[in-house]
Amino acid sequence: MCPEVCVPVPYTLLAEEWLTNPAHYFHTQQDVPITCSLTWRQLSEELQKKNGVSSKAADVPPSTLSVVRAVVMRRLQECKEEIYWPNLGHSSTISRGILPKRKVGGLIIWVGSRTRYELLEAQAAILRDEVYESTSTATSSSSSSLSPRKMEADEWVSSNGSTPETIDVVQRVIAGWMASEDQYGCRLGSTLCDDGLIHGTNYYHYGMPQTRLNVANAGWACAQRRPLRALAHALQLYDPDYVLLGDDDTFVSMHMLRSAGFQEYVRTTLIRSPLILGQLSQGRKITKRGFYYGGAGYLLSRPALDRLNGYYLFGPEQAGSFFIDFNQMLDLNMLYELGDLANRYCPECVRVADTKASTSTFSTTWQRGQLGLLANSSVRIVDLCVNTMAGEHTCFHSDHSVTRCLAHGVLADILDISCGGTRLSDKLTFGMCMGTAFCNPKAQLTCHRWKPNPDNYLDVPTNLEQSSPSDTTHLDEE
User: What is the pTM for the complete model shown?
Assistant: First the structure.
């Protein structure tokens, strides 16, 4: 499972022929992953930029030394967040780590702890053993023959030949990423939240659910920062059409992900509209229907990911919406909060402009509640979310911070997916479940705390009743 071994030092296995005959893979096996987030195609693209775009330059394969340098840098990047990325100081762009992101169809990020790594491995084993029904008579050949890397390093889900041959292999790949304390740890004492210490309320932000992180186990409190940190990190390495972010005990149905209905939904909707899909808590904070349950997972579309990766914060265009009322907009829109902080402490960090004005120049005279504002940030929007809600001494539960970042930061359109199933198109209905006792991989996309095994995998009820989430460690209130 990616990112493979990171402690005490990054570790990976390389095929001997990659180093002795890199030209072969460079010319014929470009989509084979060298590391989790590095393929021969990325090396080819970087060398073309370095050597020029002529056909002659494009045919020059990397040297063994270039491959080793790229692997060393990429493994360091995979095991550490960007602020810790080293610069080896060489003139080559490859040695400085400037490599294209790996393009994949989907990216599944499981957030958890190495203390429960065997749980994730058990679920991944079930995914690898799935048999997918063919959706086309014209199918691709087994991609397992393309990749000498182990299946644990990357879910080559097209290996059973269920995808039409006309679809590029990149679009068929669903990469997996495990986020643990190995990459996203916390310094001793940094999990206590300042707001609770200062005000004695542990209420950190008006409009957000209460938390009790100051009295929580430090390891669990640190884990609340992990989803946003992992998302920000993974988006530096991968370029996916969608991301499915969940807990390490969130079962993901690869049967559903590889179905014809879901693949059509990706092509027609997930790559076109800024969406967040998941199961809302049906409360009153953050949105009119509460926050998204992290255990049920968050499904993020490409335009939503582009906004997270972008440098523009959007203010509301209207005073409230179907899922967000006017007061929630005033309290939680991140442009308002970060623009105000920037005016006081760092004017160059976030600059706000009125898009409805005759000349959209940056200004400090805007007001909270003003519509049609746009802000330019000096860092990615996902990094702003990490800095404000997943940094040291912050007091946010991960479900709350991720929901706010997506709903009030990048203004993604909200879809509430019930556990029993929500109809998304004529060909696609699925559920996303928090704390369910049963799961049907043909009906549910995600099932929290359901442990699959060969005996129960498909021998489960098809008419699921939604369970009442009863998480004693889910320290939040509405």
Answer: 0.84
